Amino acid sequence: MFSSLLALWLCSSSAFAQNSSVFDFPEYPPPGTPAPNATLASNVTTLPANEVSNPELAQVKIHVDTGRFGPPIELVHAYFNFWPTGVGVSSDGRIFTCFPRGNETFTLAEVNSSTTEAPFPNEEFNTPEAFINGTNPAFGIATSKLIFVQSVVVDGRDRVWALDTGRPRVNGTILFATVPGGPKLVGFDLSGDSFASITFPADVVFADSSLNDVRFDLRGGGFAYITDSSPQHPGIVVIDLATGTSWRHLDGHPAVSIDSTFVPSYNGVPFFLHPIPAPNAITHLNTFAADGIALSADGEFLYVSPITSRQLWRVPTSVIKVQPSSANPNAIILANQAVQNLGQKGGNSDGLETDSNGFIYLGAPEQNAISRFNPNTGLVEPFIRDPAIQWPDTLSVVSLRDGGNFLYFTSNQLWLGPDYQNGTDLRTKPYAMFRVAIEGGKANQMS
Ligand SMILES: *[C@@H]1O[C@H](CO)[C@@H](O)[C@H](O)[C@H]1NC(C)=O
Ligand SMILES: *[C@@H]1O[C@H](CO)[C@@H](O)[C@H](O)[C@H]1NC(C)=O
Ligand SMILES: *[C@@H]1O[C@H](CO)[C@@H](O)[C@H](O)[C@H]1NC(C)=O
Ligand SMILES: *[C@@H]1O[C@H](CO)[C@@H](O)[C@H](O)[C@H]1NC(C)=O
Ligand SMILES: *[C@@H]1O[C@H](CO)[C@@H](O)[C@H](O)[C@H]1NC(C)=O
Ligand SMILES: *[C@@H]1O[C@H](CO)[C@@H](O)[C@H](O)[C@H]1NC(C)=O
Ligand SMILES: *[C@@H]1O[C@H](CO)[C@@H](O)[C@H](O)[C@H]1NC(C)=O
Ligand SMILES: *[C@@H]1O[C@H](CO)[C@@H](O)[C@H](O)[C@H]1NC(C)=O
């Protein structure tokens, strides 16, 4: 019975086999997919305990996980001073980085040797008049200076953009609320001259907003897309770069929100999120929502993933470029309806990044790895894995003028910090920046 049905199915399926979507599946595995043996982090070894406990088994070699696959990672910078998050690299190889501000003396920097960083563009720009609002304690201030740079991105025109959350953590304990004029997106040219400083109205970036990461769509007048990782106000902030006007989309959508059931595992240890006791935080870091974002190589999709979730999402940029207004009263609904759930990706991610081949690189701290989403197949592929990858925070692709395409990334041991370890700092200096060669180049989204 079964075999005759099978025969019938095989026979009838062959009639349309040529055009069935199943049989039309593109070349599989697709080009660029690592061979299965290349992503098997395997070796064999004997177990020392057996040498005494059981001589018969002492020489038996057991399959083990070496923790490594993919092209080798190269250490490009060691941070002995402040704790880093972002990295951006210009085409001439200059490396920009940033430090969430506790009592650090600067928050935006350029790497000036393998082991040191200098304030960028200078110390003065990194020194606000104050951190605490004199009339409004627990709030920050409005200032053109840099308060707390969470992300630094070099765009397709080699311009350096600093995303300032406006929320200092004074003396390492308090994440202050914002006042308008504190949070901002500041653009610098490579000589350090600031050509733009875009601030936000109070109904676009809220007092408890946490601007996290930014990507630039330089087609036409240009747009910037920013994640708001605040648990109270998860969403996407969009800026029209031609006018400086900004608006929000996807407020509270699952694509940008915390999965409260999420329990990741880092270096093999299950990790539970502890609430921080009052009164130390208005928003605590360990409940951050939408974090990494990436723009598809053609600029048509914005990929996003909450840091406390294993889900990957994307939304067409065409719908979020529409500013909600009386002229576009359904803009919010239409944007929410257009969100695509791309399913789980095998782990959570902090940073996301794109290359010109269309890959979306996904930090994979649970695996000490970086994976990549292949939009041609819908699959997440293994890319690199190494025990030295201790929380890949921010990812940044660069095509160097002197040759070479690289994915740079910071490795900052985030989950070992005191915020996440009940006040104890389990991190080990130096924090690291690595790079790995990639096939694709920088995706510039310029035309
Ligand atoms: C399959 O589709 C192609 C176009 O994609 C068409 O040329 C061909 O005739 C189709 N074959 C069948 C069996 O329908
Ligand atoms: C994987 O297998 C192929 C074919 O057997 C071989 O050429 C290649 O060297 C192997 N790669 C690794 C990393 O073992
Ligand atoms: C595999 O194990 C052998 C013996 O323990 C060791 O010499 C070799 O370096 C290991 N190879 C890898 C890729 O870890
Ligand atoms: C790097 O910058 C720091 C801070 O400005 C400075 O103290 C140090 O001398 C610089 N190092 C190099 C190698 O330029
Ligand atoms: C302090 O907060 C008040 C009220 O939000 C605001 O009006 C004022 O501009 C802030 N001060 C500074 C220096 O930004
Ligand atoms: C940080 O703490 C030190 C010592 O406890 C104190 O002197 C300083 O004023 C504090 N800084 C701010 C901005 O509150
Ligand atoms: C302040 O910064 C210094 C230097 O970065 C660091 O050694 C110290 O622990 C910090 N103190 C607090 C309270 O964050
Ligand atoms: C966290 O630390 C506090 C004291 O600082 C202690 O009372 C509490 O038991 C600790 N909690 C856990 C889960 O270790």
TrEMBL record:
Keywords: Secreted, Signal. The keyword ATP-binding does not apply. GO terms for cellular component: extracellular region. It comes from the Eukaryota. Residues 1-17 form the signal peptide. InterPro entries: 6-blade_b-propeller_TolB-like (IPR011042), MRJP/yellow-related (IPR017996). Belongs to the major royal jelly protein family. The keyword Cell cycle does not apply. It is found in: Secreted. This is Major royal jelly protein.
